[in-house]
Automatic annotation (TrEMBL):
Gene3D superfamilies associated with the record: 1.10.246.130, 3.60.20.40
InterPro entries: GGT-like_enzyme, GGT_lsub, GGT_ssub_C, Ntn_hydrolases_N
Source lineage: Bacteria, Bacillati, Bacillota, Bacilli, Bacillales
Transmembrane intervals: none
Coiled coil: none
Biological source species: Paenibacillus radicis (ex Xue et al. 2023)
Protein name as catalogued: Gamma-glutamyltransferase family protein
């Protein structure tokens, strides 16, 4: 990609980062350097991604864990491959059982929202198919930091404290006792710069590495997970774990102004970004920071989100196909709804026919766009005693409306928020990108893609640019540094605009682009996090 300027006017003034032999970009420096170390040891971008991901479960435990899910887009051997390592609901759970327990919606914390973790299986699947180094070597940095300790970084420390406050407020000392022992020893969370270690986490990672995750899904760790849920009356069992396998899937794409933008297919929400881009590619823009451009972006995202929330679920239960939702005819139909005033978004009828993100690249042309999460700060809040495993709460995404496609059911994958992104042009890789943090993700994907393709910003400037996010109906929220004159102009177009006090909910992203002619890598990392680009 060609960039018009080194900087963006509202930039953090962090420079774009260049390298040629390898690059790892993520939200925590120690994790990025762990991935780069794999490249220097003779590994490839896939090994680097796994090492970084495993390390992030230690050094950013509020956002992801061994007990979470993962998705990956991998460019290797001249092709883009997709891995869906999200897990289904337990076989024993049902809508009737949850309703009978008195719930009107799925809870965020506790036993009910826990689904089968896919993250350990994703590391093994990536390593066995495309990796070069043994898993015992790739997970060694993560094991080291869990065993020997690491100094907590500032942004992570603040979210760690917030997670503690949320879990303490649940007033269930017995159920969450193990979380408190691991993550708030002595009754408090570690301060920024303070050393924290988790020997149980280290033993679990070592067991996963030595058994290729067999211990997690069919061995000692599975037995411990099963025993915990039986003791407390939960639904997850060792049989659920033993049945699990991640899925290799064909990524989906739309062509946006000559570039193919790729996402994972449902159950992930990446299709929302593609639907929005499909609408936007038929519109003209008078510049980046103009009321007309922002209005069109917001309206397209709202329409795409209305469809995504209505239709996306486990692909076996979807009422419409991916092809129908991404068709040119449907994009034109939705595009025609955009006028000069903010609309109230509703789903259309297509014609029938807490997360971490990392990007890696090596000098051989391999690139990985990888995202893993346990959802929210510390997921379900449940830690399996003696293991350090914090269990995810992805089941909180299920609907309890029997008529909704995403209604809770046994062995079903829910609508999933975490999405890796990738761009190609003329069947050659441009690079990987992603922005983590719940519902902002497809919205931020649209903003980042347009920053790069429409407005020619370099990777760092694309991430630095102030963001907006649609909340519901006509309500949008803008970052503290979002220009006031633009916020006022959007309000005059009928948007209900509110300004956030901080940037915590506007996502944390990473980008690596590759220059097709020279192979030079250009990277950007998130100014809203403790981000770092490690280069070689």
């Amino acid at each position: 990609m060609q960039y018009d300027a080194l900087y963006y006017p509202y930039s953090s003034r962090r420079m774009v980062t260049y390298a040629s032999r390898g690059m790892v970009s993520t939200t925590q420096p120690l994790a990025a350097e762990a991935g780069l170390d794999m490249l220097k040891r003779g590994g490839n971008a896939i090994d680097a991604a796994i090492a970084t991901a495993a390390c992030l479960t230690v050094v950013e435990p509020n956002s992801n864990s061994i007990g979470g899910d993962s998705f990956a887009l991998v460019w290797t051997q001249g092709k883009l491959h997709g891995l869906n390592a999200s897990g289904p609901s337990p076989a024993a759970i049902s809508l009737d059982k949850v309703l009978a327990a008195g719930y009107a919606k799925m809870p965020t914390y506790g036993l009910l929202p826990v689904t089968v973790p896919g993250t350990p299986a994703s590391w093994v699947a990536l390593s066995e198919r495309f990796g070069r180094l043994p898993l015992t070597e790739v997970l060694a940095p993560a094991i080291h930091y869990a065993e020997q300790g690491f100094p907590v970084s500032p942004t992570i420390g603040s979210y760690w404290k917030l997670g503690h406050e949320n879990i303490r407020a649940l007033n269930d000392e017995k159920l969450f006792a193990s979380w408190m022992d691991v993550f708030a020893p002595g009754g408090r969370t570690p301060r920024s710069g303070e050393l924290w270690r988790s020997p149980d986490h280290a033993r679990t990672l070592r067991s996963i590495a030595e058994t290729n995750a067999e211990s997690f899904y069919r061995g000692e760790l599975a037995e411990r997970i099963d025993a915990f849920f039986r003791q407390h009356g939960g639904f997850l069992t060792k049989e659920d774990l033993a049945e699990y396998q991640p899925e290799w899937m064909e990524p989906i794409s739309v062509n946006y102004r000559g570039y193919d933008v790729w996402e994972m297919p449902p159950n992930g929400q990446g299709m929302i970004a593609l639907m929005a881009l499909n609408i936007l590619k038929g519109l003209d823009f008078d510049g980046k920071d103009t009321p007309a451009t922002l209005h069109k972006q917001i309206e397209a995202v709202k329409l795409a989100y209305a469809d995504g929330l209505r239709y996306i679920t486990d692909p076996r239960n979807m009422e419409v196909t991916v092809e129908e939702l991404l068709s040119e005819a449907y994009a034109a139909q939705r595009r025609s709804l955009i006028g000069e005033e903010a609309l109230m978004p509703t789903a259309g009828e297509p014609p029938k026919g807490g997360t971490v993100y990392l990007a890696t690249a090596d000098g051989e042309g391999n690139m990985v766009s990888f995202i893993q999460s346990h959802s929210g700060d510390f997921g379900s809040g449940l830690v399996i005693p003696g293991t350090g495993i914090c269990m995810q709460n992805r089941g909180a995404g299920f609907s309890l409306d029997p008529a909704h496609p995403n209604v809770l059911a046994p062995r079903k994958k829910t609508y999933h928020t975490i999405i890796p992104g990738f761009i190609t042009k003329d069947e050659q890789p441009i690079g990987c990108f992603g922005v983590m943090c719940g519902s902002i993700q497809p919205q931020a994907h649209v903003q980042v893609v347009m920053n790069a393709i429409d407005f020619h910003l370099n990777p760092q400037a694309s991430l630095d640019a102030p963001r907006w996010r649609w909340l519901r109906e006509k309500m949008i929220e803008v970052e503290p540094q979002f220009p006031d004159h633009l916020a006022q102009a959007l309000a005059r177009k009928g948007h209900s605009v509110q300004r956030a006090l901080d940037s915590g909910m506007f996502g944390r992203g990473q980008i690596i682009w590759r220059e097709p002619d020279t192979g030079v890598l250009a990277g950007g990392t998130e100014p809203r996090a403790d981000g770092h680009v490690a280069v070689w």
